[in-house]
Amino acid sequence: MPSATFAGKVVAVNDEGFLENPDEWSEEIASAIARAEGIELTEQHWRVIKFMRAEYAEKGTGPTVRVLGKTSGVSIKELYLLFPKGPAKLAAKIAGIPKPRGCI
């Protein structure tokens, strides 16, 4: 199983770089993943990341872009500005949760 080091901690990741164990996530790891993706996290990023983690904890999966845009308080247009490589997928990766269903 592949691993990666974020914020000085070695964590198991899948072939796409998503954490295998969401319980290993921390805000420091999130910041390190974001930096590796070329993103400096702002308050709006954190709003989406925390929403993603809450949805995952409640439903066992991360929300799609459509659900994110309707329920996170951040518009779809803004989501694409915050996470240009694909909002649901990239936000899930930074949030330490599995890739949402329907993401390529």
Task: Considering the chains and any ligands shown, give keywords for the structure.
globular; two-stranded antiparallel ribbon; single chain; Arc Repressor Mutant, subunit A; 2 strands
Question: What report would you give on this structure?
Answer:
The chain is mostly helical. The protein has a single domain, classed as Arc Repressor Mutant, subunit A (Orthogonal Bundle), CATH 1.10.10.370. Helix content is 48%, strand content 8%. It has 5 helices and 2 strands, in the order E-E-H-H-H-H-H. Strands 1-2 form a two-stranded antiparallel sheet. Strand 1 and strand 2 form a beta hairpin. Helix 2 crosses helix 5. The longest helix has 17 residues. The radius of gyration is 12 Å and the shape is globular. The model has no long low-confidence stretch (mean pLDDT 92).
